[in-house]
Amino acid sequence: MTAFDLQTVRRELHQIPELGFKEEKTQRYLLEKIREMATDRVDIKTWRTGILVHVSGTNPSKRIGFRTDIDGLPILEDTGFDFSSTHPGKMHACGHDFHMTIALAALSRLIAQPVKDNVLFIFQPAEEGPGGAKPMIESKEFLDWKPDTIFALHIAPNLSVGKVSSKPGLLFANTSELFIDFKGLGGHAAYPHLTKDMTVAASNFVVQLQQIVSRGLNPLDGSVITIGKMESGFVQNAIAETARLEGTIRTTEASSILLVKEKLEKLIKGFEIAYDCEINVDYGSNYYQVVNDGKYVELFQESLAGSDIEYVQASAAMTGEDFGDMLKVIPGFMFWLGVDSPYGLHHAKLAPNEAALSVGAEAVERFIRSFD
Ligand SMILES: CC(=O)N[C@@H](CCC[C@H](N)C(=O)O)C(=O)O
After folding, report:
1. How many CB atoms lie within 10 A of CB 369?
2. 77 in ligand 1 pocket by Cβ < 6 Å?
3. Is 331 exposed, middle or buried (0-12, 13-18, 19+ CB in 10 A)?
4. At residue 3, does pLDDT exceed 50?
5. Which ranges in the chain belong to alpha helices (H)?
6. Catalytic residues, which ones?
């Protein structure tokens, strides 16, 4: 694949973002590209909207896995690109279009010039939610080709093109989604005493929630609770009968997630009494922390020697990744790829620099070839 092809593929994928387990067009697009480059060394399986591509090595002693996520986000794109999303309200705002393109490029190079070991390319659905990694690695399709080591990358908007970054140990946090529904009693805006106002209850709840982090947890353990969406009411002069909060809990200690949930449920009981309402909580999907195996991070760093790619030591981040569920059972690592975007991940104007595509493909290829 030439540099021009990388850009074309990325832009074509960018135009068709789909949400978790709905990646049908994406799967068709990827299958077409994979079949175009396949030789008799290549075996392909699908799993739900995901794909597994096995490239047989020349003299294998193990299997190396590279995983890319393939889903988009429910975000209305505001980049102004002439290759913007053609799916209204959906966007590749987390770089999965980059990740997929890099996986295709590395795959094409490894097919053209096979390595000693077997290589498995994993095109995994639903990273943004509800989580495709766990069910995928439990599937027969995956277990038939279970890799001995596995790695993945994620674009890093705040890192320059030409740089990659990782670290041994904790890289990403434990996460739990958070959906909270409030049910009170609506009514006329002029008669608050005859209602149970869920806008007021939910607003206070958002504020109180932050005290779980600041007063309920050990300050030396990292944690964050973010409410990203709040809904209540229909009109300016009526009191809202219902409200909904949607957010996420992030912690650097796996046990702290449970502690947050315990404290949150106590808070809910208190609010039900104080506001005379009913509150239901749903934790959606939960991802295990991304913990890198130091041995593979070191091998990755060594594999870049003699290239123009600069390795930078990373700090742990509160981002989440269901790749953590893969690393829990298969040793390996994840790294950040510098893409130098003025806007961050999950922003409607995210604009990663496409020069990073070839850097990513080279880094992936180098690591796999380093076992030869
Ligand atoms: C790298 C990245 O941005 N990952 C997402 C993963 C989402 C997990 C889940 N939907 C949640 O919000 O808890 C992230 O938001 O960190």
Report:
1. 15
2. no
3. middle
4. no
5. 3-14, 24-37, 96-112, 133-137, 140-143, 198-211, 254-274, 294-303, 323-327, 356-369
6. 69, 128
Question: Are residues 325 and 132 in contact, defined by beta-carbon separation less than 8 angstroms?
Answer: no
Q: What is the ipTM of this complex?
A: 0.95
Sort 178 into a burial class: Cβ within 10 Å, 0-12 / 13-18 / 19+.
Answer: buried
Q: Is 142 exposed, middle or buried (0-12, 13-18, 19+ CB in 10 A)?
A: buried
Domains of the chain: 3-172+290-369 (3.40.630.10), 174-286 (3.30.70.360)
Average pLDDT over residues 71-87: 98
CA of 94 to the centre of ligand 1 (A): 9
Q: Please give the pLDDT value at position 1.
A: 47
Torsion of CA 94, 223, 297, 69, to 10 degrees: -30
How would residue 158 be classed by pLDDT, with cut points 50, 70 and 90? very high
277 annotated as ligand-binding: no
* pTM for the full predicted model: 0.93
